[in-house]
Amino acid sequence: MPLLWACASVSAAPRELRVGVYSNEPKVFADAGGKASGIFVDLLQLVATREQWTLKFVPCDWQDCLDALRAGELDLMPDVARSPEREALYDFHTLPVLHSWSQIYRAPGSAIHSLFDLQGRRVAVLRGSVQRATFASMMDSFGIQVSLVDAASLVDAFVMVQRGDADAVISNHLFGNFHSARYGVLDSGIVFQPAALFFATGPQRNADVLAAIDRSVQDWRSGADPAYSEVLRRWGAQDPGGRISPLLWWSLGGLLVFSLLAALTVVFLRRQVQARTRHLKDSEQKLATILDSVGAFIYIKGKDYRYQYANHHTLKLFGKSAQEVVGHDDTFFFDAATVAQLRANDRRVLEDGETLEAEEVNTSRADSEPRVFWSIKIPLRQADGSIHALCGISTDITERRKAEESLQIAAIVFESFEGMIVTGPDQRILKANQAYARLTGYAVEELVGQTPRLLQSGRQDAAFYASIKSALRTTGMWQGEVWNRRKNGSEYPAWITITAVRSPQGDITHYVGTQTDISSRKAAEEEIRLLAFYDPLTGLPNRRLMTDRLKHGMVATARSGCGGALLFVDLDNFKDLNDTQGHELGDQLLRQVASRLEGCVRMGDTVARLGGDEFVVLLEGLSPHPHEAAAQAETVARTVLQALSQSYQLDGRVHHSACSIGIALYADAQGSVDELLKHGDMAMYQAKGAGRNTLRFFDPRTQANVTARTLLEAGLREGLRDGQFLLHYQAQISQHHGMVGAEALVRWQHPQRGLVSPAEFIPVAEASGLIVPLGAWILRTACLQLVDWARDPLTAHWTLAVNVSARQFRHSHFVNEVLGVLEETGANPHRLKLELTETLLLDDVEDTIERMATLRAAGLGFALDDFGTGYSSLSYLKRLPLDQLKIDQGFVRDLLTDANDASIARTIVTLAQSMDLSVIAEGVETVEQRDMLASLGCHTWQGYLFGRPGPAAALRASVAPVPVP
Q1: Dihedrals φ, ψ of 535, to 5°?
Q2: Which of 576, 593, 497, 453 is nearest to 842 (CA)?
Q3: 654: helix, coil or strand?
Q4: Residue 343's Cα: distance from chain center in Å?
Q5: Are 349 and 390 in contact (CB under 8 A)?
Q6: What is residue 961's three-state secondary structure?
């Protein structure tokens, strides 16, 4: 057995216990060196030595120690009084280690000698201790009001009294007696709650430890172990085992008896008070119930503007309990602006004694949306008449204010510029605004009781109004355009919106209608339509509308099988009227032409103006047979020719005009609008080419000519770009001086066709405008040739004639271009002669003279080409700075056989001599022609007799000797 016990002792490790240490001298505490000390520490060391435990002391505050013990972070906690609550949380051993009681220590100078002296006092107590719960229950039973100030430790509690933060402190008598002198507190003589103190451990843990402690306590109480008494004597404590003085026990007993008697007395008195106040509380409860059931916000504020009472609605408004509201002023609930407003109103009640009724706008801290209240505030007075508080009753009128504003806005909107009515479900007018009355011409009183049928114009049928009713039943709304009639009978277009108003059950209770006069809008729309589709001068459909109608017409005729035709009408010589008489007369003529054209066609036909002096007539419903349709179209066209050839009255003067008409059948265009217009245009030009004031049908051969012309124009552009043009020269011979110069004639060296005749490409160049760049090239090339001739004494005196077209001459930069080419090339301007045609002179005589004079001043000469073929006027001919007249080859050709041609030639020569101009004849091909011209006085000639046009290098070689007649 000793061997087994020794082996067990060697193998068993020492038991380590974690022990909580808090500050409660002299029972347990940590000394200045941090070492655990005190009565319980010394006694536990005795048990540990006996049981071979290792102790680990853990410093902590009282409550923290208890929490750590329960959580298993500590194994033992000393100096714990047992109570039913703690026994449910911790385990204890059986025998108490020490006996103690609670004692109250007071601050010096405070008159605290009994429990009743604690009324209204501040008492410091250890947080979570049994003392606190017992003392609070005792004070409540005595009806004594005290303020308990919790402390984390007893040291903190004594410090509170020392600082003046508390009037008294509760402590066990051991700690209090040990520390009272240090903190300057005095024993008040008030004791209570005798207590037995134990070691505690966590629930259902360390049962062996508790049993070991009980064994040691049993030995201590029996006197078997004198170490217990030595520990108590060392710390100044008394032995609980019967060594407390009888006097103290009698004192404690007497105190308990006194306390019991006092408690009974207090209980009796409190019951009397409760009996008396129960009635008051019942009355207060009834009053509170009444005030809480009122829908208003009821409150009482004291002279300090703090709330003393608030009913249930006020508390709900603030979102706080009564304890959180009472004692606070408005700064706790509202923003600064609201507080200032409320304070000003409350001051009038509390200081001036007014009974106030006012509207207050409040914004709470919790909700930024302002609310509107109607408040009644009355002063509350004492028996002597002094004001001690105010009572306020406030009603939230926010929604009412919003409703009033909405009604006000609705009233303003209802009386807006737009006509509005409200009807009942039977559509009888209940209310109409002034705008509606002005719009309809009726007074408001006349409209009320009527239905909107009063305004019907008759333009819409019953089905139209039935569709409105159907839309209102299904969708509750309708809007659209309606023609109404005013009281005076005038009709007007209105845009109407009708909205059904339904009850919560879905029944229609009212209709709200708006009406706007859209006459101006309709007029603007009509004006826009006219501008978009009609010619503003004549009122006829314009090109856009005509094209649209032509598309529909061609589709309709194709579907029905009927025929149709287009008449392309162009006035003859309209430009002459515009240029000579002005555009105003030209516009008058166009309007009269439009009127006459409309009188020549049937109701379903279309007359349109394309622009300028061009008109189009669309004839539909003609015979399905092309030859019959053509005959019908021709009949209409001849009617048009006759109508437009009649005289016109323009500003009181008689004017005669005519037109050219091109006719194209729908059948020839194969459904293409553009193609049909082209056919009509080409046919019109055929009519003009046939002498004007006539009509022509579209000829497919014309289309071939147009196509060839288009290709030729494209080739001209390429030729100018690629340098395919060259100049040939035809000699000009003088009878007395031999060769005096030449005329430059342009040739086109086409890469595929070879030389192209000028008669073929010059008209195309004129029509397309390419004559301007081509003429500029001819002029520059001719000037370079003059420069070349000037280097040779045999050719230096030669002049060079260059033809200038009317379009080239009228170009705004023509004069500057000529002068620029002369300066650039260095050609002698006196050797350059420009040949002009009579038709060029007819357009603008004054401008022509000005341009010729500018160039004449620079040294250039001018010849009038083809003289005698036009309509030259001697009145302006004498004003032109000409140098030479050129007899047209048409007169030279039959000079020997036609006496008239001979007479014309003689007249031209005579005219030239009278005006001091030289004269030259072109187209001289025989010696007889030459001799005849010489006999008439023309001694300068040009023609095949002297050589055909050719390159400059071959010019001298091609010139034959000049025979002298």
Answers
A1: -75, 125
A2: 576
A3: strand
A4: 46
A5: yes
A6: coil
- Give the closest residue to 352 by CA, choosing from 382, 330, 377: 377
Burial of 439: CB neighbours in 10 Å, binned 0-12, 13-18, 19+:
buried
Is the distance from CB of 448 to CB of 429 less than 8 angstroms? Answer: yes
Q: Which residues contact 817 (CB under 8 A, 6 or more apart)?
A: 776, 779, 811
Nearest to 77 by CA among 101, 61, 94: 61
pLDDT confidence of residue 842: 61
pLDDT at 26: 86
The 10 Å Cβ neighbour count of residue 953 is: 8
Low-confidence residues of the chain, pLDDT below 70? 1-13, 236-288, 290, 293-295, 406-417, 530, 700-707, 839-843, 868-876, 956-965
- Here the tokens at position 757 are 């005749």
- pTM over 0.90, yes/no: no
Q: Show the tokens assigned to 81.
A: 């009084």
User: Beta 122-126 vs 168-172: how paired, if at all?
Assistant: parallel
Alpha carbon distances (Å) from 588 to 577, 583, 593, 612: 11, 9, 9, 13
Alpha-carbon span 866 to 891, nearest angstrom: 10
Give the tokens for residue 385: 């008449």
- Pairing type for strands 387-396 and 297-302 reads antiparallel
Q: What is the pLDDT of residue 272?
A: 55
Return the SS3 of 751. Answer: coil
d(CA 821, CA 826): 8
Listed in sequence order, the DSSP H helices in 110-166 are 130-142, 154-163
Residue 250: per-residue pLDDT: 45
Please give the Cα distance from 387 to 377 (Å, whole number): 13
Per-residue model confidence (pLDDT) at position 85: 86
- At 872 the three-state DSSP class reads coil
Residues 195, 200, 204, CA angle at the centre, nearest 5°?
135
In the chain, the N- to C-terminal Cα span, in Å, equals 186
- Residue 784 burial (10 A CB sphere; 0-12, 13-18, 19+): middle
Q: How far apart are CA 831 and CA 809, in angstroms?
A: 19
Closest CA to 615 of 646, 584, 636: 636
Q: Which two tokens stand for residue 7?
A: 């082996």
The 3 state secondary structure assigned to 556-586 is HHHHHCCEEEEEEEEECCHHHHHHHHCHHHH
With residue 178 as reference, give the H or E element that holds it: helix 173-183
ω into 26 cis (within 30 of 0): yes
- Residue 277, φ and ψ in degrees, nearest 5: -85, -15
Length of the chain in residues, anyone? 965
Show Cβ contacts of residue 959 under 8 Å, excluding neighbours closer than 6 positions. Answer: 731, 733, 739, 946, 947
